[in-house]
């Protein structure tokens, strides 16, 4: 299996831009550094710090996080491990949710809640300005749903003008919501659910690429049926890689504006994920994988 750390090179898949930031297309998602259910402290604090150090050492320059992971856990770990941050590192956070004392995911979408979210992210990351903030829509749980986002985008635009936010992105959104959002402020990235088996955003990715806007898929293995998983496993065995590596490589080959943020709390899995940037799938393999969505 293609799991050696020597093959881990996030630069192998090239770069893309988010606003005035250029990042390698293979990044890292910090969500899994929190405890079970993305709630509470990590099982292994020192191990979490080691993963962040290893990601930086491997050349990762794009980390996705949020203050409601934990809550506060991942941002504080990032600050502990990496602050002061190198100029090359782009930290992307998101707003729109919060956690209660039971770990339940709740909305935080009012103007006051969004401002408190920005202030909390700034404090826990140790920053004076957030590089990129994704507004996560609440109109669909893990799939985009129509609904107005103008008030929330206007709130973020005000904080952008104040200098608290540099760039704005959107998450869990439809094309109409993005178009409406673009009338208020530039949108530099979109983060939606998308993978081999769930490809509702095929046309959206092309539309965003034409505008130079990054697309960041989450749930790279979410919602697979047993038959779809079996086909992915078969292709992975043939190319001597893990199913996750193949799924990530397929996403990278899908479009040049696709940026990946696979998350893990394991050093082994971190390097496996990064190595997917170097995995080139043949046209025949891509065709078989494309058919999974049928």
Mind telling me the C-alpha Rg? Answer: 18 Å
CATH superfamily descriptor = NADP-dependent oxidoreductase domain
Largest sheet: 7 strands, parallel
The CATH topology turns out to be TIM Barrel
Helix content: 25-40%
CATH-derived architecture: Alpha-Beta Barrel
| Parts with pLDDT < 50 across at least 5 consecutive residues | 1-6
Number of E-state strands: 11
DSSP helical segment count? 10
- The chain-level mean pLDDT equals 94
**Share of residues in strands:** 15-25%
- What's the CATH class label? Alpha Beta
Class per helix and strand makeup: alpha/beta
What is the end-to-end distance? Answer: 28 Å
Shape: globular
Listing every helix as H and every strand as E from the N terminus to the C terminus, the arrangement reads EEEHEHEEEHEHEHEHEHHHH
Strand order of the largest sheet: 3-4-5-8-9-10-11
Number of domains: 1
Description:
With 294 residues, the chain is α/β, with parallel strands linked by helices. It has one domain (7-293): Alpha-Beta Barrel (TIM Barrel), CATH 3.20.20. Helix content is 38%, strand content 17%. It contains 10 helices and 11 strands. It has helices at 45-57, 73-82, 111-125, 150-161, 175-182, 202-211, 226-239, 243-254, 267-275, 283-290, and strands spanning 15-18, 21-24, 28-29, 62-64, 90-95, 97-99, 105-107, 130-136, 165-171, 187-193, 214-218. The protein has a 7-stranded parallel sheet with strand order 3-4-5-8-9-10-11, with helices on one face. The protein is globular, with a radius of gyration of 18 Å.
What can be said about this structure in brief?
With 294 residues, the protein is an alpha/beta fold. 38% of the residues lie in helices and 17% in strands.
């Amino acid at each position: 299996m293609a799991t050696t750390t020597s093959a881990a090179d996030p630069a192998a898949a090239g770069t893309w831009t988010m606003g005035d930031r250029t990042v390698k297309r293979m990044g890292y998602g910090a969500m899994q550094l929190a405890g079970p259910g993305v709630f509470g402290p990590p099982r292994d604090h020192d191990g979490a710090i080691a993963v962040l150090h290893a990601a930086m050492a491997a050349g990762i320059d794009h980390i996705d996080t949020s203050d409601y992971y934990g809550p506060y856990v991942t941002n504080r770990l990032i600050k502990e491990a990496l602050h002061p941050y190198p100029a090359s590192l782009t930290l992307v956070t998101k707003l729109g949710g919060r956690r209660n004392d039971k770990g339940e995911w709740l909305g935080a979408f009012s103007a006051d809640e969004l401002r408190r979210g920005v202030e909390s992210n700034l404090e826990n990351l140790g920053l004076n300005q957030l590089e990129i903030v994704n507004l996560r829509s609440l109109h669909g749980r893990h799939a985009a749903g129509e609904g107005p986002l103008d008030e929330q985008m206007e709130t973020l635009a005000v904080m952008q003008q104040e200098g608290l936010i540099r760039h704005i992105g959107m998450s869990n959104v439809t094309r109409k919501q993005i178009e409406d959002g673009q009338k208020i402020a530039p949108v530099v990235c979109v983060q939606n659910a998308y993978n081999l088996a769930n490809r509702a955003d095929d046309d959206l990715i092309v539309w965003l690429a034409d505008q130079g806007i990054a697309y960041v898929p989450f749930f790279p293995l979410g919602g697979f049926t047993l038959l779809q998983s079996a086909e992915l496993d078969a292709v992975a065995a043939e190319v001597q890689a893990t199913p996750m590596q193949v799924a990530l490589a397929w996403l990278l080959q899908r479009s040049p504006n696709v940026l990946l943020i696979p998350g893990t709390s394991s050093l082994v899995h971190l390097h496996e994920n990064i190595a997917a940037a170097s995995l080139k799938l043949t046209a025949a393999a891509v065709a078989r994988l494309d058919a999974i969505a049928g």
